[in-house]
Structures are given as structure tokens and as C-alpha cells.
Amino acid sequence: MIYFKKYQNKNEESKAYGKWYARAVNTGTVSLDDLAQHMSEHNTPFSKGAIAGVLTDMVSCIRELTLEGKAVKLPNLAIFQIGIASTGADSPEKFTIKKNVKKVRLRARATGNFSNAMIKQIGSLREYDEYDRPETEEESEIQNP
Q1: Can you list the alpha helix ranges (DSSP code H) found in 23-101?
Q2: Tens digits of per-residue pLDDT, 13-22?
């Protein structure tokens, strides 16, 4: 189930000001240890500890390989690689890291059976039940004396 909450665009400079949109809700975080436990319960002869060790090494290796400029593909999940956002320079000589590179980030692209098309086809949406209730002015004053 893919949960979402409705939110309103409150950016007065946006053409979409006042419009309502959906935002996916994260209903929790699964740690590497939790993932290893979950995997060990799926008809595998491997213990939680053995799986956790392999996953820990995998994470370390993906980090190392992507920092070496390699793309790492986990079939039917994602391709991990480094991406760079930069602005243009008038010539190669005028391009500098300090002036033109805005950010470097880890990219993960869906691949194989785990794709945006598959999520759209198989995933079902449901509005999340819990919204943050706006504080009244009185409650705000009590919490922030």
C-alpha cells in the first residue's frame, strides 16, 4: 500500500499557488538489522547475522565502487551512481568546480521489474489517516512560553 497525504502549495510566487497535491508518506524506516531479520524469515537457510554481515559489506562496497565512478546495478531494484548538478560556463577554461558545480549526490534509478511503470501498475494508493493537527494559538503559547 502506498500512503499519501494532501498538501497545499503555499508559495505565492508559484503558478500552482493554492492548488492541492499528494505527497507520499513514509510509514516507518527499516534498519539494516530489521531487513536482515525480515529476510531470514523468508525460507532461507541463512541466519539474521549472516544476512546482516553480507548486507553491511554490500553497502560498503556500493559506496566504494560509486565513489570510483562505477554504476552498481542490483537487478530488479536500482542502479546506484554518482550524479553532478552544475551550471554552464562559456568555455572549458572558465569552468571551475567552485563556481559551476552546485552539488554532487547519490542517484538511484529503478531498474528491471522494480520500475516506475510497475509501481504505477501494481501499487495502490490510499490516503493516510493521520494528519498533523494545526495547533491553536493557545496551545502554541503553552508549549512555547
Answers
A1: 32-40, 48-67, 97-100
A2: 999 999 999 9
